[in-house]
Design goal:
There is one protein chain. By secondary structure, the protein is mostly beta strands. It has helices spanning 6-28, 199-203, 255-260, 419-422; strands at 124-125, 133-147, 157-173, 176-187, 213-224, 227-235, 264-272, 277-284, 297-305, 309-317, 328-341, 344-357, 386-398, 402-413, 425-435, 440-449, 452-457, 463-465, 468-477. The protein is globular, with a radius of gyration of 23 Å. Mean pLDDT is 77; it is low at 1-123.
């Protein structure tokens, strides 16, 4: 094993942090852009698994043959597309000689890469004198979006582009494994000439103020055997998701994921994962970014995660997110489960949810941060949360050229006497991906849910929230 030099490790981390912004600055000046799904699965995982299907390492040729590997470089490991295998097995099926050595795609669905697929190449990957593993994953997409739910704001139909850059550094020092994971988004903003001709439209303006550069994940991890400590911004440990995503803002997901459970948390995570058991505890800001209040949240999960099935229980508890007089509840108790057989996967989540503004007296039109289209910022009573329950079930299939999933979920809010809030929501999602190659895909998504007449305006010209969304795109990855 290579001796570990702490100055070398620190230098490696500094190089990675310094190179990423300059790489993004160069990419931002180009016209081409990235594609869908949800970034590297560091929720964090029990055992970091990037799900890149590959054949086992082949023995190196004998030095007697005259062959010598390049200095500081290992021979490339061939990649195998599961769809090209001469069998119909699910990757990871140990009963099959062809597929038995492949990594199941499960966690890859929590990356923003093609659902259940492995890139034909791994982007930039080069072992060096300061890293056991240093690679750079890249994703680009261009799309057309028609979301009739936001037709009232005039932003419902648009072409757009997005990108993801995900450098990962990993090094082993004795019994310890160090890891630096980053996931950086490039987003195309909306035109600044957005309709704000009424207090209601003006209060939703922040929803369309897209950050061109976004830190989706950036965290440091230290692992020894079954114990792991992670600090930074990462995928929430609450629950598990196994469905693909096709947007950086992840609005093409079930209701409980877009409106209740946060995708990212920032804080300190501790995890113990003996065998297939995973016990995770995290102290977080409560929101995805830096905190606006001194109180902190607890997020935890206890689960059993095997290759073909998993079951877990999660909890999040805090007195509210945001400044003292503007705090909003974001507490949940949840159950997640999944079973997989060959190319099929069935997964789902259920939550008991607490939300709403903690204090009374805050008009919705005075909100300057992002608002919910479902009026979840209402106040029920002083220092009392609104409650609700919700679930979804997702059926996914990973074929050869085609990959698809069908998702159905419902949410049942507590009745508080405001018709804009009290309507039950039923949401169905159908997503399809056509794999042109292992690195280029065409995709489409249709979402339909419960609409609401007169959601935004009453009177002689009532305006409501419509119920349909269409997304079509082309994506590319390395």
């Amino acid at each position: 094993m290579r001796r570990c030099s702490h100055p070398e490790t620190l230098r490696a981390i500094l190089v990675l942090l310094c190179v990423s912004p300059f790489t993004f600055a160069r990419l931002a000046g180009q016209e081409s852009r990235p594609w869908p799904a949800q970034p590297s699965t560091v929720y964090p995982e029990a055992r970091p698994n990037y799900a890149f299907a590959r054949l086992p390492d082949e023995p190196l040729p004998s030095p007697a043959s005259g062959w010598q590997p390049p200095l500081n470089e290992l021979p490339a490991v061939p990649f195998l597309d599961p769809s090209s295998a001469a069998c119909d097995c699910w990757p990871g099926d140990t009963s099959c000689e062809v597929c038995g050595s492949l990594t199941p795609p499960g966690s890859l669905w929590n990356w923003q890469t093609p659902p259940g697929r492995a890139p034909a190449v791994r982007g930039f990957e080069r072992p060096s004198n300061f890293a056991d593993e240093l690679h750079l994953d890249f994703l680009a997409r261009t799309f057309y979006l028609n979301d009739q739910r936001i037709e009232y704001f005039g932003t419902e139909a648009t072409f757009g582009v997005e990108a993801i850059l995900a450098p990962v550094f990993r090094r082993t020092c004795g019994a310890f494994e160090f890891e630096l994971v980053s996931e950086l988004y490039l987003n195309q903003p909306y035109d600044r000439n957005i309709l704000v001709d009424s207090p209601i439209r003006a209060s939703y303006a922040r929803n369309f103020d897209i950050e061109p550069f976004e830190i989706s994940q950036l965290h440091l991890s230290l692992r020894r055997d079954d114990l792991m400590m992670t600090c930074g911004k990462m995928t929430t440990p609450f629950g598990r998701t196994w469905f693909p995503l096709f947007t950086n803002n992840r609005h093409d997901a079930p209701f409980i994921r877009t409106e209740a459970i946060l995708w990212r948390e920032t804080g300190l995570l501790l995890q113990w994962d003996p065998g297939n058991w995973v016990f995770t505890a995290m102290v977080t800001n409560g929101g995805p970014d830096q905190d606006a209040n001194s109180s902190k949240a607890f997020v935890g999960r206890m689960g059993y995660d095997a290759e073909s099935y998993s079951l877990g229980v999660s909890v999040k508890q805090q007195d509210g997110i945001g400044s003292e007089n503007q705090k909003a509840y974001n507490n949940h108790l949840g159950i997640d489960a999944r079973v997989a057989y060959r190319r099929w996967s069935l997964s789902g989540e259920w939550i008991f949810d607490q939300y709403g503004n903690k204090k009374s007296g805050l008009p919705l039109t005075s909100i300057t941060w992002e608002r919910s289209l479902y009026f979840r910022e209402l106040n029920k009573a002083e220092d009392e949360s609104i409650s609700g329950t919700g679930y979804y079930v997702d059926l996914a299939y990973d074929g050869g050229r085609w990959t698809g999933h069908l998702n159905l979920g419902q949410y049942f809010p507590e009745t508080i006497g405001d018709y804009r809030h009290d309507v039950n929501n039923t949401r169905a999602i159908l997503g399809l991906v056509y794999h042109m190659t292992d690195w280029s895909q065409l995709y489409g998504m249709i979402l339909t849910e419960t609409g609401l007449d007169n959601a935004f305006e009453l009177g002689p010209m009532p305006r409501g929230r419509k119920s349909n969304e269409l997304l079509l795109g082309w994506q590319f990855t390395l």
